[in-house]
Amino acid sequence: MQILLTVAYDGTNYAGWQRQENAVAVQEKLEDAISRLLSRDVIVRAASRTDAGVHALGQRASFFAPDLRVPLERLPEVLSAFLPTDISVTAAQEVPENFNPGFDAKQKTYLYNIYNSPAPNPLVGRYSAFVPQKLNLAAMQQAAKSFVGKHDFTAFCATGGSAKTTVREIYFCETEKEHDLIKLKITGNGFLYNMVRIIAGTILYAGMGKISPEKIPEIIASKKRENAGKTMPPHGLVLVEVKYSI
Amino acid sequence: MQILLTVAYDGTNYAGWQRQENAVAVQEKLEDAISRLLSRDVIVRAASRTDAGVHALGQRASFFAPDLRVPLERLPEVLSAFLPTDISVTAAQEVPENFNPGFDAKQKTYLYNIYNSPAPNPLVGRYSAFVPQKLNLAAMQQAAKSFVGKHDFTAFCATGGSAKTTVREIYFCETEKEHDLIKLKITGNGFLYNMVRIIAGTILYAGMGKISPEKIPEIIASKKRENAGKTMPPHGLVLVEVKYSI
Fold this sequence. Notes:
- Chain A is of the alpha+beta class and 246 residues long.
- The first copy, chain A, has two domains: 2-95, Alpha-Beta Plaits, CATH 3.30.70.580; 108-243, Alpha-Beta Plaits, CATH 3.30.70.660.
- Helix content of chain A is 21%, strand content 29%.
- In chain A, helix 1 (26-38) crosses helix 2 (75-82) and helix 3 (137-145) runs antiparallel to helix 4.
- Chain A is globular and about 55 Å long.
- The two termini of chain A are 15 Å apart.
- Chain A binds chain B through residues 8-10, 55, 57, 76-77, 80, 85-91, 117-123, 125-127, 238, and chain B through 8-10, 55, 57, 76-77, 80, 85-91, 117-123, 125-127, 238.
């Protein structure tokens, strides 16, 4: 029996999703919690290996548990009790034995938050990048929409990724302002290494007047990283949802 | 020249507003920042001595600075640079020499956040109390409205306060649901020790069916603390705004 969990976390104090030497990762905390429950070693596989400092509301992670004695509907509560308060399991479901939470992901949605106000706000500072300059929201929205479609996103990819192809399809990319918070919501069939943070930086540059929104298709076509905007910091990024066809 | 600042902070890591021995307070951090700017000792006085763990978006604090060399409009940016990221100065204005940020406050607004969902959410957990049970929102709203008016709030006051009178006037008290977050917004001419947290606990009890909303006037009239609900934890509380007639 394979179990698929929905996991939320504040990534501030973690070296990212993936377990590693000399740093605390979310994977390690989750594996430890499940290990305590099952009294044996456990390996979990995730939909997305989020970077250090990146947050999640809807990360997905699975593990095999033929020996699970807790009813599925109680699993989120039980596991959350074994987890630190900055990690929480919000749902659990059974999936087929051959299900793979990474390969089988059909769609991922991320949110990138920019706090746009003259002074920083400590109550949103953990979950947003602070930008004090005045921004052109219409230009940002126009830039955002230009990313929709199937493109080779080489220009929006940091080195160090392991993807076989750099073609991805973006289904939705919009900015929305809520008080002083500018939210970029982006949905696609997958994302390259740092891709959302570079797209967010490029949309920010459009808002600052550093890049004309009309140039986005050209920047994509150039396949040159230096033509795109800067990589935004990790703490503004939230993995919101992962969708499967199951 | 007296300067009045607007101050925002994430209270999680502080022992409250007021400077004290053996614990780090927001007042201390702010006084240290101003002292660095003016190269001398400084004392600031606040509108509200928020408790340990309580947050603020619109705390007000003043100090005397005949020797200030920085233009007022640049002061928020300069002071914020001397402060840790969980404290920020968002505005500065000049006030008369005889102004007192505590006594002269005409109106204070607080927000109490309850996260109401089966599983906790680490991204709002720092700024809300987690309540997994189903709640009756209509009963909470009815209970909230019953607090409006001029009352003796002895039943909603923890021991240890120093107020001369226990009569306060509430101008606004409403609950509002935004996704899984229930926000209690309350405005009054002042609040007794722990008053907002006890009112929030009483409104929560109304939502749980432990207290009938019709009984709130009786509970107020009883002047007995044991008739009201529990004191809610500090991390759900945010001081939003302080108003003056200046």
